[in-house]
Every structure is written in structure tokens, then in C-alpha cells.
Amino acid sequence: MAAVTIAVNGRSYRFECGDEDKARFAEVAAYVTSRMDGLIAEHGNVGSERLLVMTALMIADDLWDATAGESTAPPTADTAPNAGALTDVAKAMRRA
Question: Rounded to two decimals, what is the model's pTM?
């Protein structure tokens, strides 16, 4: 198992993942962090919970746009691109 530490909004979080998933985990974390940092730059620090929800909505919107035209239904955790990788990240987050 590999350990990955990410910093989001000034706080550090440590997660465990498979050695083969370490680079992907770090890449996904960097994407989330960049989206969150953009919101902070635009709106200021509006509170951790609100910032988290805003970031999640933006990423869901990105996913929706990325899968547009593939189906008339909105993307789900099962139909999203790289759904397996996202599921692995979520499992690692629950273990942390």
C-alpha cells in the first residue's frame, strides 16, 4: 500500500491506496485542489462545507459536459469515465 498526502484549503489529508493507483490519486487530488483554489480566488473562503459543495458541483458539471452526447441520461458513478478509478479513490477516502 502507498500513502498519499494531499493539501486542500490549507489542510493536509493522508490516504492509503494501491501502489499502482498512487499517481492517479495524486492527479485527481491536484484537479480537485485546482478547482477549489479557483473558487477561493473568485469568491474568497466562504466556509469549508460550502466550498466543498461548490467544488463538487463544478466537478459534477465537468463530468456532465464530458459525457454529453453519449447518453440522454445524466452520468452516474457507474457510467462516468474512469468510474473504476473514482470508486477506488472513494474507497481510499473512507479508509482514511
Answer: 0.67
